[in-house]
Design goal:
alpha+beta
Length: 169
Amino acid sequence: MHRIKEKLTYANVMATIAVFMVLGGGAYAATAAKKNTVTSKSVRNGSIQGVDVGKDTLTGNNINESSLNVLPTCPSGTTKAAGICFESAERGAQGLDVAMSTCGQANRYLPTVAELRTLHLVAGVSVFNEQASDLGNDTNHSGLGSDSGLSVSTDTGFGRPFRCAVVPG
């Protein structure tokens, strides 16, 4: 048998140091790549809170929107008053039946006199002489008051401007 001399040489030492540097550098790079990265293995259930997540950083199909406690919003082109979204601009004059049908086709409804009054009082929108869904049934309108601007007529065929309403969603 041939026996190898056991002695440390400069080349042996440098080769050993180089091997450790390469191995250590790879491990460091792997660790540095994972910095600011969160995986499901690194999170305990229920431990992430709202303050831990940046604004507009969560996306995807895994978010249950119904659990987000988001307030319903009105569609564009509408004004919100007392929890109802009213079209901001009135539509052309129509009789009661046509106005109700038009709103229904738009997945909306023709508001009542009281709802129009609320729009006027809360949002300051002029509702003068507008069509309302209950004008043909309510001849008294005792709850309106002179500030509403609604004129009273039981003639459902009489054309009045109107606006549709929708519940925010």
